[in-house]
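Table S4 entry, Aggregation promoting factor.
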Amino acid sequence: MNFKKLVVVLMSALTLFGTFESVVTPEVASAKTSKVYTSKLLKANKQAKEWIAYRESRGSYRARNGQYIGRYQLSASYLHGDYSKANQEKTADRYVSNRYGSWVNAKRHWLSHGWY
């Protein structure tokens, strides 16, 4: 097999693998992330939480910046290897409650320091 044919075969295989992976991943991901977490925040805290999420990651659960992961850019050590949406939400609520008392207070801190 000449080099050109080899490259075509490899590219085809990679394309097939990429397609297969994208088809399988959502099913696997939904099996892992079937847990649902519902935050019980009042309107002002919900708004502050969304404001912070937008500033930290543009709202993306997949955002990464070194050791900081997800929608709220939490340290990977806080998430304990579970990067699901439910765990990110629950962990962020717990973190903010323990550190600031509320999302409104966390937003105030973010405004004055550029981080929370």
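The radius of gyration is 20 Å.
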